[in-house]
Amino acid sequence: MSIKEIIKQTEGRRLEFKETLPENTDLANTIIAFANDAGGELYIGIRNNPREIVGLPEDELVKIEEHISNIIFDRCYPVILPDITFLTEEDKYIIRVTVYRGSALPYYRKDKGKLKGTYIRVGSSNRLADEEIIAELERRKRNISFDSELVMDKPARELNIENFKQEYQDKTGEALNTQALRKLELIKEVNGTEYPTNALVLFSDDELRRSLFPFVKVECARFKGVTSEEFIDQKSILTNIATQAEEAYNFVLRHINKGAVVEGVYTVSRWEYPVKAIRETIRNAVVHRDLSLSGKDIKVAIYDDMVEITSPGLLPPSIDYAAVESRQSDARNKVIAPVFKRMGIIDQWGNGLKLIADELKEYPQIEFRWKETGLSFQVQFVKLDYATQQELQQELGQELGQELGQELGQELGQELHSPTMYSEILRKVMELPLSRKEIAEAFGKKQISGYLNRTLSKLVEDKLIEHTIPENKSHPDQKFRITKRGIIFLELLKK
Predict the structure, then answer these.
(1) What are the structural domains, with CATH classification, of the chain?
(2) Does 214 sit behind a cis peptide bond, omega within 30 degrees of 0 on the bond before it?
(3) What is the pLDDT of residues 161-208, one digit of tens each?
(4) Rounded to two decimals, what is the model's pTM?
């Protein structure tokens, strides 16, 4: 990537710009934070705000390079070996410091020590790591995961896992006996006694799970409008982790719409959001959440204009959501993830992001957004046409309001109290187009009545339904389908 392309990017987890050489401590903190995470690049000689190449004096480049090397050697521990290179752009000189993802974690300031001098990268800033994060860095160094650690509070035989055993057998056809628990690393033996790992406690319905991991839950909410000021509905999912994803997914389905869309000459029924992609995102949130961050739960929020899923923990350093169509895999929870895969809750490694990308192609009106916010990872499915829909609803509402008491008054005035054939026809053609005869039969009538014909004509006149073969209205295969205006009309009635 050229310098001109790089300077168009925003500062973030792996990128930082400095107009001049930073203070010694600031430079050391940045280098340490990069090494403790996914690595990164520091460009010196580029102003961040406003973004501009200002350059460094040519005769001072070697001196600055030596100073950077000395700061890193004197202040950082364990040893960090960055690449320091000189770049030229627009006859101006820039120094690039490339720091690679470290393997001797955690890295920290020599003068502060591990507990007070370990820094991590959060967004575009360096944050002092607490003991939980330092412990996670040390686990990463040993290539073990939090869910694989033992819980010595009670032997595995005393843990209540009956529901999990049954669910595991239902989904895999295999009994979850002691041998299987060992093979899946859900239990480990210590001095002749088998103890559960954190993973098995999380799969259990034992009181121990509720006392050790009260924060491992999913908070679901449907908000009114586009802000979180007012709830319409909310649910706390406190079950074991094997069932959390499906419960959260079902909550989403209860609060999003399934309507009719026109594809060519056909009207088909589908959800307003890519539900397979949402389901996969929720599953990923449950499977890959950072369990070492106590006090942080998963949040599923539904607004009028988007569905938002937030999971504790930043992306693993090896995963790049910008390359969403590529098959990428890095299981943070090395015991839980294989169990979920065996139970069929998650697909083959690396397929999740591609599944999301593939379904999004069928929903051009939905934008897929992701960001790391604080120590959490957030995914949003955003309606691009929400503002347009709101304008159309407002326009239609004004039109209907003007007509109430006049031509549409007789038909619409009753809809708030009890549905008439006017709205019932709309609901019947919502799923798929119907002929006059099929509509009559749907009302339990053997013949097409004059009232039905008049209502159909009125709906066509009001542009709430339309003919599937408009060029020949008497065609024997003629049917009626709902229009976008009709769909919005039904939404207005709901509201």
Answers:
(1) 3-141 (3.30.950.30), 146-212 (no CATH), 218-384 (3.30.565.60), 387-494 (1.10.10.10)
(2) no
(3) 999 999 999 999 999 999 999 999 999 999 999 999 999 999 999 999
(4) 0.75
